[in-house]
Amino acid sequence: MKYVIILGDGMADWPLEQLGGETPLSYAKTPAMDELARMSEIGMVATIPEGMSPGSDTANLSVLGYDPKKYYTGRSPLEALSIGADMKETDVVFRCNIVTLTEDGGSYEEQTILDHSSDEISTEDAAVLLRAVTDQLTEEGYRFFVGTSYRHCMIWDNGKVLELTPPHDVLTRKIKEYLPEDPVLRRIQEKSYEILKDHPLNLERKKNGLNPANSFWFWGAGTKPVLTSFEGQYHKKGAMISAVDLLKGIAVGAGMDRIIVEGANGGLHTNYEGKAEAAVDALVKKGYDFVYVHVEGPDEMGHQGSIEKKVQSIEFLDQRLIRLVKEGLDRSGEDYRMLILPDHPTPIKVRTHVAEPVPYLLYDSTAPQAHTWHYNEKEAAEGGCSVAHGWDMMTYLLTGEKR
Description:
By secondary structure, the chain is an alpha/beta fold. It is built from 15 helices and 13 strands.
């Protein structure tokens, strides 16, 4: 038996008037997921432990079978694992987004945050801007590491874990009340704005109609993580397919292999077909028992507040990835169980994550069911099945036993 999870990050949502009371998931044309739903169990699962922040970090740990209350030490340390940053026990790691602020004159703190991703800036351009700032910094004990797109890391030697606000939580707001209280971190952010707002690369971006990547933004602090081995815990050889450092870092911590897909970029126009092919090859040809395929697009479109693009991202996921994975595994003759779900909702109305249960679809090729339902939030909630703790979902996938 082979096992695969396909996770559409932030795919769940709330009903929208613009879609006639449908959610993006129920409105989107998803023939592959709907066909699977008719042969599957659908239900709701709570991925976020009570009292914890509804981040992709806690939620994906949960889906992978790790209780966040036990294993979570912060988001950024997981990302740092992916990019090979050396961490000591005394280090504190921060996410360093390169964001878009207004350039309306006046002081730094009076600017408004427009875009947490700087129009999904390329990694290559972001690396140029990161270096432009760090080359001019004089503070000692702060190290910067290039990640993917707008997502980078900063390590503070002998630092402090500080509660800082994610930029996607305060879009369109003035930044004054969300800036770090620590004077050095605040000074670095201000310095980055001074350097980047007139950087030639940003002047060119504005000329081309793109948002300038004009400020660092620190958040997601944490300390060195310690995860148990996935194979040791579940006795399955696993692999991760994702474009984002968070998921690749979780894989490193769990001792899973990372499969890198060319053209996978964490955006709307990622290489869906390449991810599908890599997943099938891993399970059929390369001896893996389990593959986790993560797609960031729906979450990014939720943060952007784009109904049209979120619907499109779900349709791409359905036809350019899920359909191909099912067809490939069916052709192979392998028995398999497939779990499809989001990690958390990212509702268009609020443009950030919420801690609500998400719909899941669990298909077993050896025991197809017969239903008339479709895969979406409403019908999954009415399906009568539920999993109270997200970290129990992995055991359910692998063994068919609910805890």
